[in-house]
Task: structure prediction
Amino acid sequence: MAIFKEVKSYVQLPKLEKKILKFWEKEQIFQKVRELRKENEKYVFLEGPPTANGLPHVGHVLTRCLKDLYLRYKTMNGFYISPLIGGWDCHGLPVEIEVEKELGLNSKPEIVEFGIKEFNKRCKVSVMKYVHEWEEMTRRVGFWIDMEHAYITMKDYYIESVWWSLKELWKKGLLVKGYKVIPSCPRCEVTLSSHEYSQGLKETDDPSITVKFSVENEPNTYFLAWTTTPWTLISNVGLAVGKDIDYVKIERDGEFFYLAKARLKAVFPDGNYKILAKMKGKDLEEMRYKQLIPFAKLGDEDRKKGFRVVTGEFVSTEDGTGIVHTAPAFGPEDYELAQQKGLPFLQPVKSNGTFSEEITPWAGMFIKDADKEIIRYLRKEGRLISEKVEKHTSGFCWRCKTPTMYYAREAWLIRMSTLRDNILATNEQINWVPEHLKHGRFGDFLENIVDWALSRERFWGTPLPVWKCECGHTECIGSIEELKSFMKEELPEDFELHRPWIDEIKLYCPKCGKKMTREPFVIDCWYESGSAQFAQWHYPFENQEKFKEHFPIDFITEAIDQTRGWFYTLLAISTALFDKPAYLNCLTMGHVLDKNGIKMSKHIGNVVKPAEVYDSIGADPMRWYFFSSPVWNPTRFSKDIIKDTKRGFFDTLWNVYKFFVTNINVDNINPQTLEIDVKERSILDQWLISKLNSLIGVVRENLDAFQAHKAAGAIYHFVVEDLSNWYVRRSRKRFWSSEITSNKKKGFVTLYETLVTLAKLLAPFIPFTAEELYQNLVRRLLKGKEKKEKASVHFELFPEVNNSALNKNLEEAMDLAIEIVKAGRAARNEAKIKVRIPMQELIVVCPQKYHKMVEQFLPEITEELNVKKVSLSNELTGMVNYNFKPNFKLLGPTFKKDAPLVGETLKGLTGSKALKAVTELQKTGKFTLKTTEGNFEIHNDHVEIISSGKEGYVDAAFPGGQVFIKTELTPELLEEGLARDIVRRIQDMRKDADLEYTQNIELYIKGDEEVKTAIERWKEYIMTETLATKLGSSTKKNGKTVQWTIDNKKVTITIVPLEKK
Result:
C-alpha cells in the first residue's frame, strides 16, 4: 500500500468539501473539538441574529465565514468559544411587512380587521420560513456554530429578560413618556429610532424654494425664508433668526425684504438691491407676519402666540436666507424652540402622511406628492423668490423605503442623551477594527446621541410592559411573576408574551384597585437584539454566574451599517444597565457588491446566489477570496473572481501537494520516520523552514490584530512564491533522482513538515482543504489511540514559531537572490530574449555589504537566469550614463543672473561626476554643483535625470541594486536554447498525457540539420530533464506525436510512456 493516498492532478473542491462535511458529521468532529477545549479559558462570542424570513445572500456568507475564521483560530489557540450558538431575530417591522404582502394588507386598520392574533401567528411562522436554508448555507460554508440551541428573540424566556432590563431603566428614570417630534414612517405608521432613521438616509433631488412671509404693519415688506420641504409650510407658526447674526432690510424692484447680510449675494446674485437698514437678529425678535398658507386654523389665543419672529441658537448663514421657517409639528429643533418661546402647534397631517380635511386644496394627499401643488399655489400668490431642485439628504424607511417624516407624537423614550458621557467612556474601552470608526463614524454618532424612541404602534414585537391606571398610577412590569402579582385570575394556558394575549389579561392598580390599561405599544426590535448580551441567558432569572462569566463579550463582527444598528444598541443598553461596554473587540465588514462595484439587486438582475458559487467552485475559494482584502472595504464578487482565486492559490497549493505525494510514494518513504535536524539539511531546506516559521509569526500577529487580509497575503506569497516558484523549482532534480540519497530525504522531510504546518495554518481560513491535506499527510500514518486523538486538523493547536529554526540572515540573503533573479527576468523581457536561450553574462551592481549574500547563491542565480557568468560590482561607473536636463523655469528664479552658468554646467556633467551627483540627489534630495563662479546647491526639482545603459546590455532594478545582462547571442547559445525549447515542448506533452512526475518515456525527435546537431550535442540534458530512457530519430506509431514550430523550425516529437515500475 502506498504511503499516502494518490493525489489527482485536478481537485474538484465542491466534491471534496461535501466528503469532508460527511466526515465531520459522521465523526462528530465539531462536538469533539468543543469537548476537547471545554475546561479551557473562555473566549466569549455573540452571534448577531439574522431574521430568517428572507433567503441568505452573499453578504451573509462573508459574515459567517469571517466569524468562523476567528473562532476556529481562537479554538486552535486553546480557547473554549462560549457561547458558540446562533441566534434568530424574530420581531419587528420587516416581518410585519412580509406578512402584509402575503395577506394583501396595506394598512394598520386592515391588520386590526384581519385580527391581531391571527396576524401575529402568521408572523411567528414567517420569521422562521427560511431557517433550513440559513442552516444549510451555514453548514456548507463551514461555519461551526450550534444552530440547534440558538437563542430566539420571540421566546417568552427572552422577552422576560428584556422586560427586566426595561424595569431597570424605569427605576433609573431613563424610561419615560414624552411628546416628541421623531422620525416616522407614514406607510407603516410607526416611529423610528435615531439609528433606524440614519440607516435610511440617502441623497435625493428635492425642491429648494425661497418664500416671502408678509410683515405685519409694513406694506410690501417680507421676511425671506428657505425650505426643502414645501409641505411643512402649511404648519408654519414662527420664523427663527440668530440673535447676533447681522441682518439687513433691502429694497428690490419696489419690494422690501429682510434677510441675513451674509446671504445677500447667494439670494440675489445679480446685485440688484439697495440696503436700507442694518440690524442684529435680536432687533427683529417679536416682529409679526401674516400666515403664509391660511388653511390650518388656529384659535385666537394661539394666533397671538404664533406668526412672530423668535431667536434660535441653531440658525446659521451657511445656507438659505439666515431666517428659518419653523413648523414645530415636523422638526425636533422647531419643537424645542416652540417649547422655549411659546409658539403654538399646528398638526394638519395624519400619521399616514396625508393632509387632514381642513387643508381643503390638498386634503387626503400624501405630503410629498403635495410639494408641487404647494409650490404652484405659492407661485400663483406671488410668494416665491426662487425655486430649483437640489441634492439633499432625505430619510426613507429602512425597510419599506417610503419617505419618512418628522412627526410629533406621544412616545416612550430611553433618555440616552443623559448618558452621552457614559457611552463615550465605554466606547473608549472597545478595540474597533478599523480603528478610525471609534472616533469617526461610530464616535460621531455617539457625540450627537439623542433619546431613543423605543415605542412602536405596531403588532408583532415585545409588548411594552407599562400599565396605567385612570387614577394616575403607572407600573412597569419586570417579570412574569410580577405580572401575576397584579392579577386576580390565572394566566390562560395558551398565554404568551405577545399581543393580543398580553392585552387580554387584567391587571389591577395597587393604589385604587381599578383595572389598569397597558400602553398600546410594542418596542423597537433593535432593543431586543441589543439585549442578546443577557437575554440569551434568561438573565437575571437564570444563569446569573454564567452571565457574569460571559460579560463583556470578547468579539463581535457584522457589516458596517450596524454602527447605527446592533453595535450601537448593544453598547447603549450595556451602558444604561451596567455602565460597561457590551463587547471588547468589534470588527466591521463592508458590503459585497457585484463584479462592477454595483450593489446587488433583483431588480438589476446582478444577484449572485451563494449556492451557485460553492456548489460549482467551492466554499473554500469563496472564504479565501473574502479574507484576501480588508474585509471592512466593499468587496466585488462574481463567479469568475472566485474561479481566478481558485486558480491562483488553490491550484498552486494542490500542485505542490501532489508533487510531494507522487514523488515520496515512488520511493515508499514514511516521512515521519525521518528525524533530520534542520541544521543538517541543505541551505535551501533551512531557508524554507526559516521562512515557514517567519510566516507563522506574521499570521499570528495579524490574526491577533483582526487583520485577516495581511495574514492571508503572507500565506499566499509563501505558497506561490517561496514554496512553489522557488523551493520546488530548485528541488525538482533531487526529488526526481532515481536514488534515495540523503539530500533527497532531507528534501522530503522539509516539504512534509511545510505541508503539514500549512494544513494547520490554513485550517481557520480554508477548513475543508486543510482537513483533506491533514487526513492524508498525518492521520493516514497514525494508528489506534493516536489516530483518534488526532482525528482532525481542527483538534490541533495553531502552529507556534520555532525560534531555533529561524535564520533571518539566510532569509535576507536568499530573498536578495530571488529579487536579483526577478530583475534578471525583467531585463530578459526588455531584451525580448526567452529564458531558455542562455546568455553570456550577468552583472549585479549592489553595495559591497550585499556581495557575500549574493555569492552564497551564485549557482542558483546562474541556473535560474540561464547565464554563463555572474559578476559582482559595487560601482555603476561604466554601466550607466547619466546626464542632466536643467529646468530653466526654476533655475531662473533661484539663481537669477547665474542661471545660464548653472544650466550649462549641469549639461556638462558626465561619467563619475554625474554618477556622484545622482547618488547624492537620490540620497538627500540635493547636491553641490561646482562652477567657475562658485558652488551652487541643486535640488530635485531643478533638474531632470536622463539615464542610458551601457551599449550591448539591458538593465533592471531590484531593491538595493541593479542588474545588467549582455544581449549578444552566439550560435552556441542559440543552439543550447533550441535544446531547452525542445525540452519544454516535451514537458508540455507529458502534462497533456497526464503522466506522473516520475514516469519514464521513450523519446523520438525529427528535424533539420540544426535540430539534429542540437539534439546530438545536448542529448544527455534532454533525456535527463524529460525522464527519457531512449532518444531516437524515427517516429513510433504507438506513441503520441506532435509537430512543433520552434524558432521557424519544424520539429516532430514522439513520446512513448513506459509502464510504471
In short: The longest strand covers residues 201-214. Residues 630 and 1037 are 57 Å apart (CA to CA). The longest helix spans residues 639-667.
